[in-house]
Specification:
Layout: H1 2-20, H2 25-32, H3 71-76, H4 82-90, H5 92-95, H6 109-119
Helix pairs in contact: 2-6, 4-6
Length: about 130
Amino acid sequence: MIVRTAIMVLSLAAGGALQARAQDAAAGEKVFARCHSCHQIGGTARNGIGPKLNGVVGAHSAAVTDFHYSDALKRSDLVWDDANLRAYLAKPIAKVPGTKMAYPGLPSEKDQADVIAYLGRFSTDGTTP
């Protein structure tokens, strides 16, 4: 009985964690509006204060060749996978001390997941499937 209860509790906890990680690209597009003053994405994206973000999911940090990154971000040698993007979105300065990204962070895990889902829709040339 105790083992069965423990398994049920763990299953419910795991299910809750999966729900917390559910991603909604449409919601992410709305959250990305906060990022738009510095970053662009899509077929007509250009670098601004921050680099364009086409193809960022799965790319190496400092990968946009025509953008001047901070030395800290160049040295970080990160791959923008889910974990690294979440940590950077949550608190950029904590993830990459010395980054030029002055944004204080996106504390909501749901917002982070949604933004990552939205960014993940764009290939390096800015097209979407």
